[in-house]
Each structure stands twice: as C-alpha cells, then as structure tokens.
Amino acid sequence: MITDIYDVIVVGGGHAGCEAAAAAANMGSKTLLITMNMQTIGQMSCNPAMGGIAKGQIVREIDALGGYSGIIADESAIQFKMLNLSKGPAMWSPRTQNDRMLFAEKWRLALENTINLDFFQDMVKNLIIKNNKVEGVITSLGIEIKGKSVILTNGTFLNGLIHVGDKQLGGGRMGEPKAFGITEQLNTLGFQSGRMKTGTPPRVDGRSLDYTKMEEQKGDENPQKFSYMDTPKLTTQKSCYITYTNEIVHEILREGFERSPMFNGTIQSIGPRYCPSIEDKINRFAERTRHQLFVEPEGWKTIEIYVNGFSSSLPEDIQIKAMKHIPGFENVKVFRPGYAIEYDYFPPTQLKHTLETKIIENLYFAGQINGTTGYEEAAGQGLIAGINAHLKVHEKQEFILNRNEAYIGVLIDDLITKGTEEPYRMFTSRAEYRLLLRQDNADIRLTEKSHQLGLASEERLRKVNDKIEKSEKLEHFLKELSLKPNQINPILEGSESKPVDQAYRAAQFLTRPNINIEKLCTIPVIKEEIEKYSSEIIEQAEINIKYKGYIDKENDNVEKLKRMENIKIPENFDYKKLLSLSAEAQQKLSNLQPTTIAQASRISGVSPADINVLLIFLGR
Length: 620
Prior knowledge:
Layout: E1 5-6, E2 8-11, H1 15-26, E3 31-35, E4 49-51, H2 55-64, H3 69-75, E5 77-83, E6 93-98, H4 100-112, E7 117-121, E8 124-130, E9 133-139, E10 144-147, E11 150-152, E12 161-164, E13 167-170, H5 182-188, E14 194-200, E15 203-205, E16 215-217, E17 240-244, H6 247-255, H7 278-284, E18 292-297, E19 304-308, H8 316-323, E20 334-336, E21 339-345, E22 363-365, H9 375-393, H10 407-418, H11 442-453, H12 458-480, E23 482-483, H13 485-494, E24 504-505, H14 506-510, H15 517-520, H16 524-530, H17 535-546, H18 548-565, H19 583-592, H20 597-601, H21 608-617
Parallel strand pairs: 1-10, 2-3, 2-11, 3-7, 11-22
Antiparallel strand pairs: 4-6, 5-6, 8-9, 9-10, 12-13, 12-21, 14-21, 15-19, 15-20, 16-17, 17-18, 18-19, 23-24
Helix pairs in contact: 1-9, 2-9, 2-11, 3-4, 6-8, 11-12, 12-17
C-alpha cells in the first residue's frame, strides 16, 4: 500500500508524461509517475525523430523552459538537419534523427536522477474524485494512491484498438495492452469524449534493402543541436534515404482496399490530415503516380529501419507484397507490418489555458488525450501541465504562455479556443507572430520566465544574458561602422546588388536581400570583429538587423493584442442577454467561456461585429 500523499500524480510515461513529471518534481513537488510498463518510458512509438517544421521550435522552447526533450534529443541524435534554410528565419526548423533505444534510455535515466520523483508500474483505471475535485487514483490492482493533483497523459492507450486489415487487437501500442475505465468514469462526470485514429508504418530489416537504388540524404555539414546547454554536437552522422512508390505498388495496395478498415467502415474515427496512410494518399491523390518514402535508421547499431511515408492498416500480406515493388525493397524482410490505432480523446475546449479541466478541479490533461499528434506537441503540453499542477497545489499564480510568446502558447490557445476534430499538428502557419517565435531566439523569449519559476538554472540565465549582450554589441558595431563605396561596391556588384556612390553604415547593406555577414567578412575590419563571436551570436545579430522592420511591425501588433488580452470577461458571463450577438456567437461564447476579449476574438464563428458588441457592453 502506498501511503504517501503526492503533490502531483502523472499518469503515463510518454513524452507528455515525462515532461510533466520532470517539471513538477524539479519545481519541488512530491511527484509520482505511474506507467503501465517501466520499460517503455520515453518510447518513440512512431518515427525515430524529433523536431521538424514548427515542431523543432517547440523542442527549443521546451529546452529554454528547463524541460528535458531537447537535451535527450541531442544525446541520442544520429543525424541533424535544419529544414527550410532556403526560406526566411521564421521558417527555419531543426530536426534530429534519433537512436530510438538510446532516446528511451536517456529519458529513463534523466527521470531516475530527478529528485522528488517516484515511480510505480500499474494501470490507472479510476480517479478518486470528491466534490468535483480530484484526490488521487485507483490502479488495476485496487491500490488507492492519494494526490493533490493528477495529470492524465494516456496517449493512444485509452480503449486503444489496433487494426491490421480485418484483424483487430486491443492495445495502446503493438504488443502492449490498452487502458480502460478512465473514459467511462469521466463520461459519467459530464466530460465529452471522442475517437481518433493514427497509424504507423512497417519496420523492416535494413540488411535486406538495396540502398544503391535510393537517394542518400546526409545530415548537415555543420550540425547544430536543440539544447542551449552544453550537449554534445554530432561529429559523425548516419544517412537516411529516399525512395518512391510506383503504379505497380499502388495497384497492389488497391487490391486490399476492400479488406482495409479505413474503407470498409470498421474505422469511423478521423486520422491526421497531414500524415495520411499510404492507402489514404493513393485514394485522395489518385492522379499521382508515385509517393515519396523516407528510409530512416532506428539507431547507431540496430539493423531496424522505419519506412516513413508508408503508414498503413492494410492486411499484412498486401503490405509486404506491395513493398517488394519499391526500388531497393525487392528482397525486403519485414519485422512488423504497419497498423492503425483508434483511441479515446477528450475535446480540449473542456480545459482551461493551464490545461486544468473546467469540470474537475486539479485534474489536468496533456498530449494525445487532447486530440494532438506528435511527440513535440505532447511534450510541450506535458511541461505546461506539470508546471501548473505544481503551482496550483502550492497556491501560486498560474503560468500561461501567450500566442506572441511561444509556439506552445499558440498550440494550447488553438486547442482551448478552437478545439479540434482531427489530430492537431503544429505548423508555422498557425502562428501569426512566427517572425518573433523563431527557433534561434527561444532562449531569449523564455529563459527568464523559466528562471522565475525555478526551472531554468542560474547557468542557463547567465548563458542567455551573455548571448543577448554579445549580439547587441555586434549589432551596435555594424550599425556604427561606415563603409565607403570602394570597400562595399565589389561585394554589391558580385551579388547583383546596386552599387553606391557614397558611404553607408554596414547594417544598411545587410538589409539588402542578397547581402549577408559572410559576404561582408571579405572586408578586413568586419572580419576581424566577427571572428570574436560564435556562429550563434552572429546569426542572432544578422536576423535582428536584416528583419528589423518586420520584427518592429509584429511587436506593434503584439501591443494591440495585449490591450485586448487585458480586457477581462467576467466569469460565467451570460451571453444570451446580449441580443445583438449572433446566435452562433452566443452559443460558442457560452460553451467556451473565454476569459478575455482577445480569446473571444479567436473563436471560430465569432465575428468582429460580435466583438464590438462585447466591447460596448464592457464599457470599452
């Protein structure tokens, strides 16, 4: 019998659960992580990679806030790439290919070395709730564990159902049992739940593949990393490969459509729009004769390969038959077929911005239970839930990130305000202030906040202050240095940029699209100064100078938003008494109960005219 009363109980040991447990414990809460299997803590259930477009920004934000995901991604990386370098810096997104087994091991060891954190292996089947307040959990062994707050991070395990063709297996992951009891209890308490679907590709034997028929994809020549701390940089990297499906592959896959749970009505739930199964791609994009596949190694030493882009719930014999017609896969040996999985989720409009539920006090949801997809989205939510659960039980002020402060803020605000009916994935296009929310400045945006919470160390704060000081010093140098025509014109002419007939400041030339610091370094006085700084400092200074006009404009928009955020709406406001509101606005506002005018303005179906009605009523 566990007699301890915990400040925070975290249910689930995936990416959300790991970050939640680490955050709460590091802030000083007596924390318990309950998982169905201690051997799968920090498991990469799907692809062996972290980051990517917009997701890489989230990992950098988690790191700046004192979370572990960036550090563990660096420690287990086998390849690093900065995506979207041909676009502006708002779009640059870091991504690592990771050693799956090493990633999970690093997570387990990091948590074991976290003080205030206990572990227990069992399934949680019920919550202890009294007077609409959670007071602990009950496990499948009937053990009652008391807790002042509970964070549910159940992933795909709540009534999980695995589909391979016409075969169905109960489970949260292949080979692991489903969790049950929680959904049914929450539904009786007034929560709404739904079903979502996700899928995973086959895993194959890398020794059976012919890589000479594929395109090699190497990592960056000068690999960076996620964490702002002193994690190791990659010195050697493993390559990924690209190959393609073809019309023969598509024809074979179509043979199995009538046995596919996606097409015969067995699966009713909605899957991720931006990561569709191979059969869904063939069906939706029938005009395409081929689809790209990424052949990704699972680690430094293992022969296991992840076939990214071939997610499928078709019968295993159809999957294998089709794969043998993919270039390089003619002699493929399959370790495990792809499968789809259906699971319970709870529409996130039932949550507050702290991720606490509106119905039950001190109960928090994070990760796929909220309808999201992706390790990074889950980890970001887990971190915020862990922070807020700690703050709540210690009677401290809640911690909420605004949309202009972090992609994590955009993610949570989208979920709470708009909800989601399909697995939610983060994109740069979802952030209206994405030029402010770059991957390079997450430490500048968030370290001070994290330090105030007690998560970011003094060393982290010192590092970010040093970065700010040095980048400002370099900016000042470039803004003050005057360049004469004979110094700058050879560079301008060589870059197809208009030459000048008088002296200008160096910073003014940096605002030109074809001119960068690297080109200016052919001028000795600039080269001498630039060599004093790290590449990180140089990049920061160059972005701040080159995009100053755009950054200033976005900051002006943020100030306007803040004014709307400051206009609070009374709790339990009766919108039905405002007859000038549209019927849809009355319904949406009544259901979601936004706390500010800014939040109300982001609700789908609430028009600018409706916002004006609210402003007039509130005396604004």
